[in-house]
Automatic annotation (TrEMBL):
All copies of domain TFIIS central, residue ranges: 71-173
Residues passing through the membrane, by range: none
The organism of origin for this protein: Plectus sambesii
Protein name: TFIIS central domain-containing protein
Ranges where the record places region Disordered: 38-67
SMART domains on file: TFS2M
Gene Ontology terms for molecular function: zinc ion binding
């Protein structure tokens, strides 16, 4: 999905430009760090040799520690902030744990911090912050939707009703 497709048709040109500028700034900030650029180059060179086999977990073990991978730590922090962006419902699970499990599933699914990983992570953050669909965030926080399931949901599955599909920039917290 392109960046412009993620922005609603109802958004003004100024809103679209503002969102795209912020996305470009985030991308520049990530690629400007030498350790991230080195890790990306290493991943791309290793992919050409032989792709790693996917990790399939049959038990719910705690997430792998993110120390040493600043990009993954920041991505997890984005998810934590999105999970905490509103009132916390009764019976809320630990947002840090949920964010780590979502991030880990995306990381395992895409075998690293690829462009697709980043695209899906941003999509999850945007959907968690979407004011017109608070049920999605609440369902994740209360355990109705498993974080691993949320990580692989399509945009249609994340929408609570047909009217939710059209988002504007003012609908986010």
């Amino acid at each position: 999905m392109s960046q412009l497709q993620a922005i609603s048709v109802n958004a003004t040109e100024e809103d679209k430009a503002s969102i795209l500028t912020k996305l470009d700034q985030m991308r520049a900030m990530i690629t400007a760090q030498p350790e991230i650029a080195e890790a990306r180059a290493e991943r791309q060179s290793s992919r050409k040799v032989s792709p790693p086999t996917p990790i399939i977990r049959q038990t719910s073990s705690p997430p792998r520690p993110l120390e040493g991978n600043e990009l993954r730590v920041r991505c997890s922090k984005l998810l934590v902030d999105a999970l905490k962006c509103g009132d916390m419902p009764d019976g809320t699970l630990d947002p840090e744990d949920l964010a780590a499990r979502i991030e880990e599933k995306l990381f395992d699914l895409h075998r690293g911090t690829t462009d697709k990983y980043m695209e899906l992570l941003r999509s999850r953050v945007v959907n968690l912050r979407y004011k017109k669909n608070p049920a999605l965030r609440e369902n994740i926080l209360t355990g109705v939707v498993a974080p691993e399931r949320f990580a692989i949901m399509t945009s249609q599955e994340m929408a609570s009703s047909p009217g939710v599909k059209h988002k504007s920039a003012s609908d986010y917290k």
